[in-house]
Amino acid sequence: xxxxxxxxxxxxxxxxxxxxxxxxxxxxxxxxxxxxxxxxxxxxxxxxxxxxxxxxxxxxxxxxxxxxxxxxxxxxxxxxxxxxxxxxxxxxxxxxxxxxxxxxxxxxxxxxxxxxxxxxxxxxxxxxxxxxxxxxxxxxxxxxxxxxxxxxxxxxxxxxxxxxxxxxxxxxxxxxxxxxxxxxxxxxxxxxxxxxxxxxxxxxxxxxxxxxxxxxxxxxxxxxxxxxxxxxxxxxxxxxxxxxxxxxxxxxxxxxxxxxxxxxxxxxxxxxxxxxxxxxxxxxxxxxxxxxxxxxxxxxxxxxxxxxxxxxxxxxxxxxxxxxxxxxxxxxxxxxxxxxxxxxxxxxxxxx
Length: 352
Fold this sequence. Notes:
The protein has helices at about 20-25, 90-100, 160-175, 205-210, 240-245, 280, 290-305, 320-330, 330-345; strands at about 65-70, 75-80, 100, 105-110, 115, 125-130, 140-145, 190-195, 235-240, 250-255, 260-265. By secondary structure, the protein is α+β, with helices and mostly antiparallel strands. Strands 2-1-6-4-5 form a five-stranded mixed sheet, covered by helices on one side.
């Protein structure tokens, strides 16, 4: 497997690896060529991607305690993870299969060259090496996954197209489905927010790849107000601060591991390793597994591949030059596009 040289990144004293490890982690280019079937160009191109970046983004690789290597190149990490509660050996295997495209069977070995079993044992901090089993042909065993990562920032949405969505999510959940914080039936919803699993700003992408076929309610075929992307099955009710983490891919839900909550940053809320409330899973209008799986893949790629994707600033004091700050920040075009479409899509159907 070949690797391009990696630019230096911030060192981290909290990692179990020396500073030189993080300095070698690969920075994935902003817009790699899409290779998976559901990859696509973003809805439009409003700005040039080569806008100069002067803001220093939060480094997602900082604080990693798990580092992933191609066994044939032990000097350059291809990814890593901030280890939190609930992550197992089997989870790491599944995450590796997301960040790389594997064409044959492989094993993970630890720093002592001992094969890590694909089981429910808690994952331990350290370095892990991908060993591809012997092949008959001399071909590259795997490559980094260039699946499209949809740029996302905090999305507090109000408007005519999302009001019915919000009301439906509130009526179904009546609690933060991750922390368990309950609504007291007093018409006081402060501190609760209805979160889209797939972001409304990318409705064109949703339609182009027919994600709406994952929506099964209402069963009588009745049209959903605001379109299928505003179905209750594309939403969950979250505590406001948890909504921020979900939108930034700092946390996600793995539907293939009993709906376990996975934290990709340090867990300040004691939610890592918990599972979604069974009452939600028993509801006929429960979130679609495929959408939760999409979000989980995005979270893995955003946080674990290379040095990770940039984290956008969202707290702009009154009087701030918000547009100017965004234009000076990382991935300026994608961020501006998201901000524009996330606001317009709450009022207008931009797909017509």
